[in-house]
Amino acid sequence: MAADFPYLYPYSRADARDLKQMQMHEDSFRLNVDCARAIERAVREHFNDADESLSDGCAQSVLERFGFKRVNFVLANSLQEFRKSVCKHLVCDETYQWGRGIFVPPDGMYNRYYAADTAAGLLEAFIGQARDAYQALGLFGPEHCVGDPQEQDFKGKVLVMRPDTLRESCWDPHDQLWYGEGGFGCSPHARGQAVYATCLSDGEKTRWNRSDFAGVLDEQYLPDWAREKLEELRGVQQEQDIGHSMDGMTME
After folding, report:
1. 50 CB contacts (<8 Å, ≥6 apart)?
2. Structure pTM?
3. Angle between helices 22-45 and 120-135 (to 10 degrees)
4. Is the Cα dihedral 93, 95, 98, 102 positive or negative?
5. Distance in angstroms (rounded) separating the CA atoms of residues 30 and 228
6. Which helix (H) or strand (E) holds 233?
7. C-alpha 233: how far from its chain's center?
8. How many Cβ atoms sit within 10 Å of the Cβ of residue 5?
9. What's the CA gap between 122 and 190, in Å, rounded?
């Protein structure tokens, strides 16, 4: 799935009004509603009467049109709305927990408009397909990180970029691994947020914010394609540190 998709507005209607971003909210809201209706149509079209299941490809057809970010947002909203119903017990706790991991702003009646209206079992089956499709991308996440990201120094470490920081066309493990080189944001308690880093796949150097990263990669998950570049960058960093140390001795 290599396409980019329209911006998913993450705030409520009230927030949009305060921020003077009502058009952005309206555009995103209409797409959320379209996405919910597309999920309902896909469920109807892929429903198997024989065993009351969904055929393969049900979620994929919607993901290709709207992208993971919006589909997951609409599904999480649908779960929030479903929890308000008398049938809330028909969805398992693990699925609800997945939904809680995606922030959906409380927006009064507007949340109801983009809740997919389908049976609990079919909603769970659709969510299962969407989650399987996401896992198939092979992206790095918090489960591949080590330590507490709130307390770690990022300098000299392999950092995992959060997928949500990137455009969906860049959702590839090669775009997620960065070597932290400097910036106030490398320090966990600094006021500054800037982290200067180099991409391990293509050598691109970019400024990010500390919050753009999920944490420090557990290097048991470091792929072979990244190892050579990492060794090169650490060698350069070591030479620079030695040079700075020598400069300090000379000044003394």
Report:
1. none
2. 0.84
3. 110
4. negative
5. 46
6. helix 224-251
7. 27
8. 18
9. 47
Give the Cα separation of 196 and 201 in Å (integer). 16
Whole-angstrom Cα distance, residue 160 to residue 176?
Answer: 6
Question: Is the dihedral angle over the CA atoms 34, 35, 36, 42 positive or is it negative?
Answer: positive
**Positions in the chain whose pLDDT score sits under 50:** 249
Residue whose tokens read 């909603």? 123
Q: Which amino acid is at 125?
A: A
Residue 232 to residue 57: CA distance in whole angstroms: 43
Round to whole Å and give the CA distance between 40 and 75.
11
Residue 159 to residue 94: CA distance in whole angstroms = 28
For 59-90, letters b (16+ CB in 10 Å) and e give bbebbeebbbbbbbbbbbbbbbbbeeeeeeee
**Strand duo 53-54 + 145-146: pairing:** unpaired
pLDDT tens, residue by residue, 169-218: 899 999 999 999 999 999 999 989 999 999 999 999 999 999 999 999 99
Contact 11, 105 (CB under 8 A): yes
In tens, the pLDDT along 37-56 reads 999 999 999 999 888 889 99
Q: What's the CA angle centered on 121, arms 143 and 77, to 5 degrees?
A: 60
Q: Are 12 and 54 in contact (CB under 8 A)?
A: no
